[in-house]
Design a protein that fits this description.
single chain; alpha+beta; Arc Repressor Mutant, subunit A; Serine Threonine Protein Phosphatase 5, Tetratricopeptide repeat; 4-stranded mixed beta sheet; 3-stranded antiparallel beta sheet; 7 strands; 56% helix
Length: 264
Amino acid sequence: MLHTTRRTNTAKFRQPALTVQTLGAFRCSHDSNEITQTQWRSQRACELFLLLLTSDGYSVSREYASDQLWPDHLGDAAANNLRVVLHRMRGALEPNGHLQTIVHATHHTISLTLPSGSTVDSDEFRHAIAAARRSPDGRTALPHLRRACDVYNGYYLANLPLAEWAIPLRAKYAADYAAASIRLGQILLTLNAHTELVERMWRALDIDPSIEAAHEILMQSYAATGNHDLVKRAAPTTPALLAHTLRATQAAGQRRVYQQVLSS
């Protein structure tokens, strides 16, 4: 979900900027000071923060938050749990006791106002993906694809138990990253930017070995630059993937190069 509005903190007192990493291992820092598990006090406090970050305007209803965090609880039990978790989240995000600068709560809603200069990697990733999709031309898409691939560092919340609401996000971000990596590799191949291509395709495979097309792009790059010894290294590791790659290669000459190198 692409956020269309973002609340920014305009109060005279300035909280330190937050840096939030969700793609890969979750981390949240005030400037360079990471908020520890002890400061969060509970997994649910951290989860409420993450839930808010995925919501339009960084705002959710109390009812929605309760339903997502405690789907098996009803009525007063969920409401009481939410009050406790909200207090803990506020304590982690506003450690100096300056209330209502980041966390805002009414009888009906909970919302965040991130301090000026704050960054959220999943927001940056979504914005870059959206900008690349609006750019049908490879050269105009290139900086957005590079940004998206640079920001993505692994599966969404890779080091946390995954709540049910977060499962679709993990799958979507992984699919978006795979598609962006493949498109980036194809553009770099047409531009003969082989050094960058090789670095980015190997990084993509390190992050997600299931991106099959990255193998093919690497093989094409190595073959085009005469690095036939490296074609074999770039080939898929399973016979089924290799057979698929060879079948998917449209140029007959390219297929012959692959087959000669792989059979040597």
